[in-house]
């Protein structure tokens, strides 16, 4: 009896082959097996023969949307920066996408980084991806040579041991609190759709920090980011960080220093997270790729919480609405103002077709 | 730099929009409303121009407090600059609170060109808050400490 992910892998290979053979797409973005246990490698397939390399498993933790703009560019006929766009439709690219990645594609479309008409989304309902770090922590000190995957358990094997662990117990934190695991964009459905999840409180990890005193929060912040080596993997792996010149590379003025000074590192993280406000889909890639195991996702998750609380918006859920920071409502909350006056119009629900907060998920914002 | 003596006075950087708050500060001066001399004014075209980079950069460079002030909602010279700014400031203010920067370090207000007296009050209030907090240390880059460290090494 094949596992769910084996069925999904087979479907991805078949659909990718079909799309490439028909000439519908010029490339397919997916995953190939990695060289180490519990790793996978993003792969761009350009010919039907290579489709057999594509796989899908529970360790697909990198956000494939990150590779979409460059892949789209790579399939265009070569042209100089000033040459006009060629006549006729440009080649398309297919991409495997779970809930959060598909929401990133929505954001990329809203920000004109991606032309939706050129993307074929192969939608996969996500069952939550496993954190390699969590598995390694269980077997600390032992070398894991192979991990086999069942639907609900992992069989972890080393030279002299073989143990079965529960899969959900090692699923990444962001996946455990995910509410929309099924893709919002689906052109080709892979596997079965998964239903909306209702974790008791999607912001529980953030609220634990919020409940601390201000001094304890500062202690948490300094401690959490003290080991950062400024490799910028968290930035590079994120599909939102496509700026040609990132603020950390600005020289005049230099907003953050290049040193490992705690303040420079702290400012890098505050600003990077802030740049993702209203755009972050909590895909967890930034946290996953960090070589130092820093939970910088707490900052973006806090912003996600505030954006939802204050403006009723979740990134990527409303393709037709503007991004939260590119719009406004007359009566946006302004309790943080030093001399707050009553908002101009009455406290009518926010305009522009905003959704209300997820029921029972959040308390009144501050 | 952070030596605190009894007659320590905080330095507060005030980003004031050209059309309302800066004019409000001007009016306060012309009308002889007294307010603390702790603020250093940076005139900006609009509160929408004030980026998180500018605010954090001021903190990093040793400001004890920040005040960002613009036109009241509905009065923006550029029609909607302050509405956009309000969303960004709300998120920034919450994020700074989240990481443990003391509430009261970074302040936002609306002051119109005709509110000289209100401007003086806002500055008074902000200065008192910052004085109560003492000199800033969080997100302040300590160049002195770094230099000493380098000399020792
Ligand atoms: S951190 Fe900010 S400036 Fe840098 S790439 Fe990301 S969004 Fe752009
Ligand atoms: S900030 Fe992190 S969690 Fe958010 S979209 Fe980027 S990589 Fe994903
Ligand atoms: S990936 Fe980790 S170590 Fe690298 S810059 Fe980001 S937080 Fe720092």
- Through-space gap between termini of chain A: 52 Å
Major sheet of chain B: 4 strands, parallel
Strand content of chain B: 15-25%
Helical fraction of chain A equals 25-40%
CATH architecture of chain B: 3-Layer(aba) Sandwich
Number of helices of chain B: 5
In total, the number of domains of chain B comes to 1
User: Which regions of chain A contain 5 or more consecutive residues with pLDDT less than 50?
Assistant: 342-366
Weakly predicted, low-confidence segments of chain B: none
Computed Rg of chain A: 22 Å
Structural class of chain A: alpha/beta
Please give the order of strands in the largest beta sheet of chain B: 2-1-3-4
Shape of chain A: globular
The ordered string of helix (H) and strand (E) elements of chain B is EHEHEHEHH
Helices of chain A, by number, come to 11
> What is the arithmetic mean of pLDDT of chain B?
90
Hetero compounds: iron/sulfur cluster
Mean pLDDT of chain A: 89
- What sort of overall outline of chain B do the alpha carbons produce when their principal axes are compared? globular
According to CATH, what is the topology of chain B? Rossmann fold
End-to-end Cα distance of chain B, whole Å, is 22 Å
